[in-house]
């Protein structure tokens, strides 16, 4: 055996030994998680605890693995350990292969059980009825803005926001026949937001194709997969295989940093993690200075605002409600003081929830 072959053999034996250690440690971790499960009742998932673990490990990582890989691997480890006791069940927009499902996997790991819903309206109702533990819903896109139907339902649901997911969105043009020329495509199906996120590309490459909005990108993939027509769907990679489709153009989104923000809703109230956000919706009187009075307490207490979104109220014509994201947890003294002052200057205030800031991959 030459020197190179001997070195390879030695390195492979070293890797085998390390793998055995990892396997043993993974099972020890699962056993410890199971012991915690015997001490607790209900859902074992704690968003603040997972965020603290991921932040700590990402900061402690000395390489050569990048921090993103460390976060991904440990999220999957936590997902598998949690499933050892009882898998988390999550409602999301379907059918299979949607970006919402990708957001579930990104946040909860592959061991989470996914329930695909036909409409965004069904998702909250399923969790409210305790048919699943959590819901993952899109709230805004960096290109197309807020998802109005979700903002409206956030006002009405008794569920609490307990997590967020930042999902980079990469759109693929999917067809049944990989040899189909772009010039022969007659119709393009996708969610209206995705059609908007790709409209420049569509103008340049598929000017002849009719654009048809549907309830979700995965529904678009299902329709194209079940048709013999020269149709195409705009969807993510996750939607290709289940419906027998091929990507004939990749990353067709107009903005390279296109990102959708999702929120996780459930019955639990997330405890402080050390790096949190608080979301609320506020109604104010239609009078001069109302917004100034609303925002002044933030400046006085030094609380940063990361989002301010207005939307017509459904109760009175030309009245508006405001969706606000604050940095910090509602249990923190300065955030609590801000919330108290906002309530004094508002018609109503609903705290949607406090939750850990997403740990980026």
From TrEMBL:
<keyword id="KW-0028">Amino-acid biosynthesis</keyword>
<dbReference type="InterPro" id="IPR002912">
    <property type="entry name" value="ACT_dom"/>
</dbReference>
<dbReference type="InterPro" id="IPR036979">
    <property type="entry name" value="CM_dom_sf"/>
</dbReference>
<comment type="function">
    <text>Catalyzes the Claisen rearrangement of chorismate to prephenate and the decarboxylation/dehydration of prephenate to phenylpyruvate.</text>
</comment>
<dbReference type="InterPro" id="IPR045865">
    <property type="entry name" value="ACT-like_dom_sf"/>
</dbReference>
<dbReference type="InterPro" id="IPR018528">
    <property type="entry name" value="Preph_deHydtase_CS"/>
</dbReference>
<dbReference type="Pfam" id="PF01817">
    <property type="entry name" value="CM_2"/>
</dbReference>
<keyword id="KW-0456">Lyase</keyword>
<keyword id="KW-0584">Phenylalanine biosynthesis</keyword>
<dbReference type="InterPro" id="IPR001086">
    <property type="entry name" value="Preph_deHydtase"/>
</dbReference>
<feature type="domain" description="Chorismate mutase">
    <location>
        <begin position="2"/>
        <end position="89"/>
    </location>
</feature>
<dbReference type="InterPro" id="IPR008242">
    <property type="entry name" value="Chor_mutase/pphenate_deHydtase"/>
</dbReference>
<keyword id="KW-0413">Isomerase</keyword>
<keyword id="KW-0057">Aromatic amino acid biosynthesis</keyword>
<feature type="domain" description="Prephenate dehydratase">
    <location>
        <begin position="89"/>
        <end position="267"/>
    </location>
</feature>
<protein>
    <recommendedName>
        <fullName>Bifunctional chorismate mutase/prephenate dehydratase</fullName>
        <ecNumber>4.2.1.51</ecNumber>
        <ecNumber>5.4.99.5</ecNumber>
    </recommendedName>
</protein>
<feature type="domain" description="ACT">
    <location>
        <begin position="279"/>
        <end position="356"/>
    </location>
</feature>
<dbReference type="InterPro" id="IPR036263">
    <property type="entry name" value="Chorismate_II_sf"/>
</dbReference>
<comment type="pathway">
    <text>Amino-acid biosynthesis; L-phenylalanine biosynthesis; phenylpyruvate from prephenate: step 1/1.</text>
</comment>
<comment type="pathway">
    <text>Metabolic intermediate biosynthesis; prephenate biosynthesis; prephenate from chorismate: step 1/1.</text>
</comment>
<dbReference type="GO" id="GO:0004106">
    <property type="term" value="F:chorismate mutase activity"/>
</dbReference>
<dbReference type="Pfam" id="PF00800">
    <property type="entry name" value="PDT"/>
</dbReference>
<dbReference type="GO" id="GO:0046417">
    <property type="term" value="P:chorismate metabolic process"/>
</dbReference>
<dbReference type="GO" id="GO:0005737">
    <property type="term" value="C:cytoplasm"/>
</dbReference>
<dbReference type="Pfam" id="PF01842">
    <property type="entry name" value="ACT"/>
</dbReference>
<dbReference type="InterPro" id="IPR010957">
    <property type="entry name" value="G/b/e-P-prot_chorismate_mutase"/>
</dbReference>
<dbReference type="InterPro" id="IPR002701">
    <property type="entry name" value="CM_II_prokaryot"/>
</dbReference>
<dbReference type="GO" id="GO:0004664">
    <property type="term" value="F:prephenate dehydratase activity"/>
</dbReference>
<dbReference type="GO" id="GO:0009094">
    <property type="term" value="P:L-phenylalanine biosynthetic process"/>
</dbReference>
<feature type="site" description="Essential for prephenate dehydratase activity">
    <location>
        <position position="260"/>
    </location>
</feature>
<keyword id="KW-0511">Multifunctional enzyme</keyword>
<keyword id="KW-0963">Cytoplasm</keyword>
